[in-house]
Amino acid sequence: MVTTLWLLGQPPWCQCGTYRPWSWEIDSRHNSQHLIDPYTFTHVLHGILFFAALWPLRRRMPAGVRLKTAAVVEAAWEILENTPMIIERYREATISLDYYGDSIANSVFDLSACLAGYAIASRLKWYYSVAILIVVEVALLATIRDSLLLNIIMLVWPSDAILQWQSG
User: Fold this and answer.
1) Nearest to 34 by CA among 51, 18, 54, 56
2) Would you state the pLDDT for residue 93?
3) CA 54/CA 133 separation, integer angstroms
4) Residue 21 region, left (φ>0) first, then alpha (ψ -120 to 50), else beta?
5) How far, rounded to the nearest angstrom, does the alpha carbon of residue 132 sit from its chain's CA centroid?
6) Closest to 103 (Cα-Cα) out of 22, 158, 48, 160
7) Residues 5/78, Cβ–Cβ less than 8 Å
8) Is 45:117 a contact under the CB 8 Å cutoff?
9) Rounded to an integer, what is the distance from CA 86 to the centroid of its chain?
10) Its pTM surpasses 0.90
11) By C-alpha distance, which of 97, 108, 121, 96 is closest to 46?
């Protein structure tokens, strides 16, 4: 993943020269350039959802293989998300007008967040995982007017009403 992102031209770190580990500015070039940003929490949700999706295969697929499958799918998403096609899609259809893709450090941390979500889901009863998913989605909607669900909707079926609401 790291090599592919490098070949796609993604920077190793935020090119602003600031080495802080996080950025909460979703409407700036800092977004997705530091280790942690509000979208890190959506990657935790990826892990929870991957655990749920792979759970029915538990009798045929050992736990380690399911974990590796989740990691490969997340790494593939990180690569796809940083292709020119998806970057442009984000910029034209979502509130991410100043999005230029993730830094490599951010993508690595997003993968780690996904694996953390997977680990959390593997240790909790399913209804606690559902509760975490709902709380995170609502918290993101309340704080940044975006969430995993809205991100998917806006990438696949952009809505002017959602875009207008997100723009404040």
Assistant:
1) 18
2) 86
3) 17
4) alpha
5) 16
6) 22
7) yes
8) yes
9) 13
10) yes
11) 121
